Amino acid sequence: MLECVFCNILRGEMPAEFVYEDEQIVAFRDINPQAPVHVLILPRKHIPSTNQITPGDVGILGEMILVARKVAEIEGVADSGYRLVINCNEDSGQEIYHLHLHLLGGRRMTWPPG
Ligand code: AMP
Ligand code: ZN
C-alpha cells in the first residue's frame, strides 16, 4: 500500500474537515464537492475497494451505513434526501483505493447517474 491519501489523512499527516469520527469509521468533506453536501465515509481499516471486502468486514460495512445516517442528520439532508455511492475500479471512476462511501445531498439528483 504505497501513499494512500486517506490513510495519510487518518494518520493526521494531511488535513481534512471531519464531520464525524469513532473507533472504526471517519467522515470528512470531499475536497472537490459535487453537491452542496458531499461527505466521504470510510473505515480506518485500509480496504482498497469493494472487491477486497470479506465476510469479516460486514460489521465495518454496516457501521459505514449507520454513520451515513448520522451524517445525513448532522448535515440536515436526512429529510430532503441524499445519495450514497461507492465506486469500484476504473469504469466507475474510482480515484482513491481506500474504500469510501460518498454521501451527496442538498440538491436534486438525476438518474441514471453519469
Ligand atoms: P472516488 O472517485 O470514489 O475514488 O472518490 C475519491 C474522492 O476523494 C473524490 O471525490 C475526490 O474529490 C476526493 N478527494 C481526493 N483527495 C481528497 C482529500 N485530500 N480530501 C478530501 N477528499 C479528497
Ligand atoms: Zn488507505
Instruction: Report the helical percentage.
Output: 10-25%
- The fourth-level CATH homologous superfamily is HIT-like
CATH topology: HIT family, subunit A
Report Rg. Answer: 14 Å
Fraction in beta strands:
15-25%
Characterization of the model:
- With 114 residues, this protein is α+β, with helices and mostly antiparallel strands.
- The protein has a single domain (5-105), classed as HIT family, subunit A (2-Layer Sandwich).
- Helix content is 24%, strand content 22%.
- It has helices at 5-10, 58-74, 89-92; strands at 18-21, 25-29, 37-43, 82-85, 101-105.
- The chain has a five-stranded antiparallel β-sheet, with helices on one face.
- The chain is globular.
- It starts with a helix and ends in a 9-residue tail after the last strand.
- Adenosine monophosphate is lined by residues 5, 14, 16, 30-32, 40, 87, 93-96.
